[in-house]
Amino acid sequence: MAPSSSSGLTFKLHPLVMLNISDHFTRVKTQLNPPPSSCAAGNGHSSGDAMIVQNPRVYGCVIGAQSGRTIEIFNSFELIFDPLTDTLDRTFLEKKQELYRKVFPNFYILGWYSTGSDADESDMHIHKALMDINESPIYVLLNPAINHAQKDLPVTIYESEFHVIDGIPQPIFVHTSYTIETVEAERISVDHVAHLKPSDGGSAATQLAAHLTGIHSAIKMLSSRIRVLYQYLLAMHKGDIPFENSLLRQVSSLLRSLPAAQSEKFHDDFLMEYNDKLLMSYLAMLTNCASNMNEMVDKFNTAYEKTSRRGGRTAFM
Amino acid sequence: MEGASTIARKTWELENNILTVDPPDSASDSIFHYDDAAQAKVQQEKPWASDPNYFKRVQISALALLKMVVHARSGGTIEIMGLMQGKTDGDTIIVMDAFALPVEGTETRVNAQADAYEYMVDYSQTNKLAGRLENVVGWYHSHPGYGCWLSGIDVSTQMLNQQYQEPFLAVVIDPTRTVSAGKVEIGAFRTYPEGHKISDDHVSEYQTIPLNKIEDFGVHCKQYYSLDITYFKSSLDSHLLDLLWNKYWVNTLSSSPLLGNGDYVAGQISDLAEKLEQAESQLAHSRYGGVPASSHRKKEDEPPLAKITRDSAKITVEQVHGLMSQVIKDILFNSARQSNKSSSDPSDPEPMITS
To answer: What CDD domains does the record tag this protein with (chain A) (predicted)?
Structure first.
C-alpha cells in the first residue's frame, strides 16, 4: 500500500522510543487481560470483558528535534484515543506537551505512533488532525506480533504525501527509511538490559570478559555481513545473478574507502594515546608495588620489633 | 556459529552466577499488571513500618533504566533529578517507569522536590488517564563523576520521604562513570530512621570517591543501606532488543569510550595524586610516632595506600579496555591486507537502512 517516500528527509530513531511504545502496549495488554491470579477488571480501549484481547491498539505522540533535513525522534508519550469521534484527545495532548516542554525544551511534536500490522484508512484521519501542530507529521507503526523468523525491526515510519487519486489530490501514507541513532549512555544501558550483564564490579576478569564479548559479537555480525557481500559478488562473477551496476559501484566505493584513516597525524595521535595508556598502567603497577612494599615493611617491623611490649623477637642473623 | 557463541555465553553466565530469568514470554508479562486492590491493601498494612530493613530488592524495568540513564547523561556535569513510578511486591520494590523533573542541582538545595510538586501532580494525573496506573514510588538523581552514594542532603531528603511518602526509594546514577566503564553505574538506597544503628558486619561494596566528597560520604554512609538491583523486560521488549542488535552492532564497534571522557579521566588522575600526597603525609607522621599506631587498626580498615592502589587499578583497567577497542578497530579497518576480507567502512549506513 505504501510506496517509498521521496521527500529526501532522513529519519533517526532512538531505541528509547521503541521501548516506550512496547511498554505502553504491554501495559495496556496486561491490564486488559489480567493474569489468572488476580481478578481485577481492566480499563478498556476496546470492548471485550471475558475474551482475551489479543492486540489492543495504543496511541501516542512522538517528539524530537529537526535540524535541516534530518529528523531525530528522541522520545514519546501516550495519548488517549476517543473512539466516538475517532480522533485523539486534543486537550490531553496539549497538556502532556506542556509538561514535556518543561523538561525537554528543545523537543517538539513530530508526529504520532500506534501499534498494529499495517496502516489503516482511519489512521489518515488522525494524521490529518495532527497536521495543524506539525505541517508534515510522521506516523510510527510498531507491529507487536512476535515473529521469531523476522530479521527486521517491526517498526515502520510513514510520511504523508499528496498524490492525485481519481483527480483529487489526497494524502496517502508512504514508507520512509530510518536509521537507529544513539548516544553512548543509551547504547550502554540497552546493551546492559539486552544481555543482562552483571551490574556489580565483579572481578577484573569478568569485566574484561564482558567487554571483549561485546566487541566479539559486533565483529561477528560484521563478518557475517561481509560474507553475504562476498557470496553475492561471487555469484555475480559466475553469472548466476544478473549484473547490477549500482550495487557494484557501492561495493567498490566501500572497498576504496579502506584503509579508514591513514594520515601521518592520525598515526601520531594514535601512538600518543597508546603510549599514554601504557604509561598509566605502568604508574598503576608502580603504585601497586609501592603499596605492597609498604605493607611488607610494616609487617616486617611488627614481627621484628626490639622494643615491643608483647615480646618481639630478635631479628636473627 | 550461532551454537558455539550461545554455549560460550551460557558458560560465562554460569560462572558468574547470573540468574537468567527464563526469556520473558507473554505469561511472565504479568509483572506489568497493576492491581489496584492489592496495592491499596499493602498501603494499609504498612509492613515496612516495623522493619527498617524490610525492602531488600529492587526490580527496574528496561524502559525506566534507559530513561534515567539518558536523562542523567543529558545533564552533563549538572545533577538532574526525576521520579520513578511503580509498585511493591513483598520485599521488592518494582520500578516500572521514570520521568524527569524540571529541576536542577539537588546537591545544594534541600527543597528541590518542593518546586517540582506541581509538575509531579500534573504528570501523575495525566498519566493515570492514559493508562499508567502506578504511583510514584521513589526518586532518582545523578552524581556525575563521583559515584553512587547518598550525600548529607540526599540522606535528609530521603529520611523525610520515608516518613511521609512510604514506600519510597532513592536511586543514584552516575552517567560519567557509566560511559567510562562501559557498564551502568547505579545504586538504590533506603535510609534508616534516626538513631538506628547499622549492624557492624554490613559490608558495602567499595567505590572510589573523589577527595572533596569523601568527608560527606564518610559522615553519612552508615545511615542508609543499599538494595540489590535486578532488571526485567517484557517479551515484546526482548524481541525488539534482539532485533535491534542487528542494527546496533555498528554502534558497539564504532563507540570510542576514550574520546568522550577525557576530562573525567584527567580529573580522576589528579584526584588520585592528591590522595597519594595525603597518604604520604600520613605515613610520614606515623613513622615518627612509632610503629604501634599500626597495631590499633581494625582488621577491615585498609591502609589508605591499598585503597589508592585499588583506585588506580580501576582507572587503568577502564583505560586499557578503551585502548583495546581502539587497537582492534585499527587492525580491522586500517591495515589493507592482501586478502581483503575485512573491508567494511564502519560509518557506512548500507546495512542499516530499511527500505
So the answer is: MPN_CSN6
Is A315 an 8 Å CB contact of chain B? no
Place of cell 498494529: A116
For residue A62, being part of any structural domain is answered with: yes
In-domain check, residue A133: yes
Contacts of B289 in chain A (CB under 8 A): none
Could B343 and A218 be called an inter-chain contact, meaning their C-beta atoms sit closer than 8 Å? no
Give the residue with greater pLDDT, A196 vs B353. A196
Report d(CA A178, CA A174) in Å as an integer. Answer: 13
User: B45 lies in which domain range?
Assistant: 30-233
How far is C-alpha B272 from the chain's CA centre? 22
The beta-carbon neighbor of A189 closest among B65, B99, B333 is: B65
Is pLDDT at B39 greater than 70 in this prediction? Answer: yes
Question: Inter-axis angle of helices B2-15 and A204-238, to 10 degrees?
Answer: 180
Out of A26-35, A73-82, B85-94, pick the least confident. A26-35
Mutate to test the interface with A, among B101, B127, B140, B243 (most CBs of A within 10 A): B243
Nearest residue of A to residue B175, measured between CA atoms: A185
* pLDDT tens digits, one per residue of A78-90: 887 777 766 777 8
Complex ipTM: 0.76
Query: Total structural domains in chain A?
Result: 1
Task: Name which of B144, B236, B153, B159 is nearest B194 in CA terms.
Answer: B159
CB contact under 8 A, B323 and A277: yes
CB atoms A151 and B251 under 8 Å: no
Portion 116-135 of A in contact with B at CB < 8 A: none
Q: What is the DSSP string of B299-345?
A: SSPPPHHHHHHHHHHHHHHHHHHHHHHHHHHHHHHH---SSTTS---
Distances (CA, A) of A11 to A118, A175, A187, A255, B248: 20, 11, 18, 26, 16
The neighbouring-strand residues paired with B80 are B104
Partner residue facing A284 (CB), from B312, B341, B354? B312
Domain count, chain B: 3
Query: Which 3 state secondary structure label does DSSP give B211?
Result: helix
Residues of A in contact with B336 (CB under 8 A): 258-259
Residue B9: which pLDDT band, with cuts at 50, 70 and 90? low
Packing angle, helices B235-254 and A15-32, rounded to 10: 170
**What ranges in A81-203 are assigned the alpha helix state H?**
90-103, 121-130, 184-195
Which residue in B has a C-alpha nearest to residue A59's C-alpha? B130
Which residues from chain A sit within 8 angstroms of residue B241, using beta carbons?
Answer: 190, 193-194
Strands B57-61 and B80-89: unpaired
How is residue B30 annotated by DSSP?
G
pLDDT class for B12, splitting at 50, 70, 90?
low
Nearest to B251 by CA among A172, A214, A118: A214
Domain span at residue A139 reads 10-32+55-180
Together in a domain, B249 and B228? no
- Give the pLDDT band of residue A275 (cuts 50, 70, 90): very high
Determine whether B25 is exposed, middle or buried from the number of CB atoms within 10 Å of its CB (0-12, 13-18, 19+): exposed
Task: Tell which A residues from 245 to 304 touch B, by Cβ distance under 8 Å.
Answer: 250, 254-255, 257-262, 270, 273-274, 277, 280-281, 283-284, 287-288, 290-291, 294-295, 298, 301-302
